[in-house]
Each structure stands twice: as C-alpha cells, then as structure tokens.
C-alpha cells in the first residue's frame, strides 16, 4: 500500500492549499484506491499561513480591526490555547486584497497613506486571548509605513514638532519629530514574536520598501523618493530612541518586508526573522508526516525562479529529499526547465496547462484539472 503525502501551497487567486490537496487526493484515489494519503497544507509565511495552522490543532478567531484606509474589517487568525501560539497574517488587517482593484492608486486608496494600525490591533487581540508566542506572517500588505501604524496602536507615540500625532501611512512620517516607545504594551516584551518572511529587502534605498514595492501598492513613482525619505526619518528616530546604531535594524535583510513592517517588528517588537516556508513546515509537522512515505506531492500556482529561492514547494522537496522520499510537483504553469526543477529535488513537474491549454480555464476551474493530474501521478506509481 502506497503512502503519499500531499504538501501543496495555494494556487493564488484560484484555489486554497486545502482545496488543491483535496482535488489531488481524489485523483490519486481514483487510481490507487488503497493508498494511504496524508494532506499537509503548507505556505511560505504569506497568505495561507493561517489556513495551514487551522488545518491542525489551532482554533479560528475573528476580530474587528482598522483596515489600511480606516474602514473597519474582519480579520481572522489562528490560536492554539495549549501552546499559547497565535498565527497572524498582516494581510488580514492591512492587505492589498482588502481594497477593490479599481481603487488602488486613487485618491481614496493612495498607497502612501495606507496604515498598518490594524496589525497592532490584531496582535493586541491575540495577546488578550493569552498568546505567549505570536507568529506574524508578512506579505500582501497595502502599506508602506514602516510599521508605524502597528506600533502606534500598541502604545507608541509618534509626534510632530507641535506635539500632535502624525498622519496615517508613510506620508504622515514626513512630519515626524519625536518617537516615544515608553507606552508600548508591556505584554509585547513578555511574548515571543516570530516574523515569517522570505523577503530580504532593507527598509530604505533602491532595494527598499518604497522603491521596490510602493508602486505595486498604488504609490506614484514621483512620490517614491519622498516616501523613502520619510521611512528613513522614522527609522532613524526609532533607532535613536532605542539607543542603537543608525541602520542597526533598517539595514537588516527583511526590514523592508510588508512595507516596512519587518523593520518595526524587529526593532520595536523584538521579533526574530525566520524563513516563512520552514516555519510553516515545522508548525504543521511536515517531517513527521513524511516519515516512511513513498512519495511527496507538492506544488503552487506558478513555478518560476522565485519558487527555487526558498518558497514552500522548494523547501518541501529539499526536506523530503533529506528524509529519503521522492517528490513530484504540480502547478498551474511553469517556465522552468526540467534541470532547474530537479536541482531542488523535484523529480518531475505536472502543469495544468499540460492537460488544458486554455489558461483562462486553468485559472477559473483548476480543481477538476488538478484531479486529473492526481490520476496521472498515481498512474506513474503503478
């Protein structure tokens, strides 16, 4: 009897990791009806991280927080009372997905004005539940405020020369004169903050949050230099308040993640940065699941060079190889060569476009096609 582990990430915009796994399970079972199949949804620290936690022992919690442009929104997080661990995604509170695409970059949703305050509210809610360890998944944010909104909602005071609170977003930091961290929620110092991210950008400069990601969030190209200067000002005042060398945190790889939320999470929350993919694999017990398996099936919506740089499918394959287990993969489409895929330990890759050349259908109706790929993979094992 074959033992197969399905450890797929989401097909972004088309299917969740759990939906992908179930379609594969059905396809494999169509051919190998006696196979032992274990489904382990995975993610790389961005969207899907909470779903991965909810697939095991974690409880689902919902709270109302302030969205990136001040409108209330419902945010979901996962919490395990036994371990005191909460899994949060910043995108739930300040995500680009919370904004209608038609509004991004308009006067009502200008990226330089977006605030991360809801992330602080989400953290506070988890602390109220009793969380002692918070895993903060960075990715998908609409903000480029360096995490200023997050720390303000946790008790920091960010003031102008006249003693007023600065305005929202990165734009508001242009008027920043004083940073006072003495009012930060004391529970933060008592909690372990783990930052899940695979982004290596610093906070400022040509590779920083404003320059690289700002335009994707509706920041006009002409506003990028001023926004970068504002983030630099913010970072300098935070580091001065902390009594550390200028750039100690702002120049750290990953400080620019999620519009600079990486910076504030490292500097003010005292967080530690970890690979998002490995953190999730540890969380869901991947190594235990793959013990004694005959095959691992991994995948995500698109396989490209970013996949090879430590994203979830690559880490799944590498850890399966360390356990002596073969790995194959599925995806929506790929532009990688067979040699590139084998380089991360994946023996073969099956794309939806192999069985359905209509890309629009692959995006809108992926699950029947994924089931077909499951049958193909199972047939190759007979």
Automatic annotation (TrEMBL):
<protein>
    <submittedName>
        <fullName>Glycerate kinase</fullName>
        <ecNumber>2.7.1.-</ecNumber>
    </submittedName>
</protein>
<dbReference type="Pfam" id="PF02595">
    <property type="entry name" value="Gly_kinase"/>
</dbReference>
<dbReference type="GO" id="GO:0008887">
    <property type="term" value="F:glycerate kinase activity"/>
</dbReference>
<keyword id="KW-0418">Kinase</keyword>
<dbReference type="InterPro" id="IPR018197">
    <property type="entry name" value="Glycerate_kinase_RE-like"/>
</dbReference>
<dbReference type="InterPro" id="IPR004381">
    <property type="entry name" value="Glycerate_kinase"/>
</dbReference>
<dbReference type="GO" id="GO:0031388">
    <property type="term" value="P:organic acid phosphorylation"/>
</dbReference>
<dbReference type="InterPro" id="IPR018193">
    <property type="entry name" value="Glyc_kinase_flavodox-like_fold"/>
</dbReference>
<keyword id="KW-0808">Transferase</keyword>
<comment type="similarity">
    <text>Belongs to the glycerate kinase type-1 family.</text>
</comment>
<dbReference type="InterPro" id="IPR036129">
    <property type="entry name" value="Glycerate_kinase_sf"/>
</dbReference>
